[in-house]
Design goal:
8 helices, nucleotide-binding, two-stranded antiparallel ribbon, EC 3.5.4.16
Length: 198
């Protein structure tokens, strides 16, 4: 008997109020001394509102899993999944890549869903540490694998464009669960395949 796909949607709540966001964006820009009376800036508050609404609204998807009929018990890893999110402290973007892997249990996951899960949790104001843990915890809960590993490497605009202006710096975070945390050889294999020195 097949297991029905789990429909994944963003937390329930009111959708974006684009009119209010546009007014607030106009107020912010004006307060920062940016005049909005030129042709090129007149529509900027509306564009800002729509851009942030898009950044904070993940697409729903079906979490498609399949029986692990072959008993596959080696690491499944998707490397270089694009990550884009917004730092919750400054509302500036951070971008990079995620490497997401798991040791299958009774079910395996449609591979594109690893990227969808990263996108799902990245579409909100975030900190990289929480994002990394949310992806790993969610996979462990929904898939019940023998182990999960998530590594995110990202460049944060709040570090490169302002403050310390550390251009070219990147931040690496990881979360390991189950066998990938407990077994040194499995952990080393995961880090070797991601290109991270564990």
């Amino acid at each position: 008997m097949s297991t029905p796909a789990l429909r994944v949607v963003h937390e329930s709540g009111p959708g974006p109020d684009l009119a209010a966001a546009e007014t607030a964006a106009a107020d912010l820009l004006t307060a920062l001394g940016i005049p909005l009376d030129s042709e090129s800036l007149r529509g900027t508050p509306g564009r800002m509102a729509r851009a942030y609404a898009e950044l904070f609204t993940p697409r729903p998807f079906d979490l498609t899993t399949f029986p692990n009929d072959e008993g596959y018990d080696e690491l499944v890893l998707a490397r270089g999944i694009p990550v884009r999110s917004v730092c919750e402290h400054h509302l500036l973007p951070f971008v990079g890549v995620a490497h997401v892997g798991y040791l299958p249990g009774e079910r395996i996951l449609g591979l594109s869903k690893l990227a969808r899960i990263v996108e799902h949790f990245a579409c909100r104001p975030q900190v990289q540490e929480r994002l990394t843990k949310q992806v790993a915890d969610w996979l462990e809960e929904q898939l019940e694998p023998r182990g999960v590993g998530v590594v995110i490497e990202a460049e944060h605009s709040c570090m490169t464009l302002r403050g310390v202006q550390a251009v070219g710096s990147s931040t690496v975070t990881s979360t390991l669960l189950g066998t990938l945390r407990e077994d040194a050889r499995s952990r080393q294999e995961f880090f070797a395949l991601t290109g991270i020195n564990g």
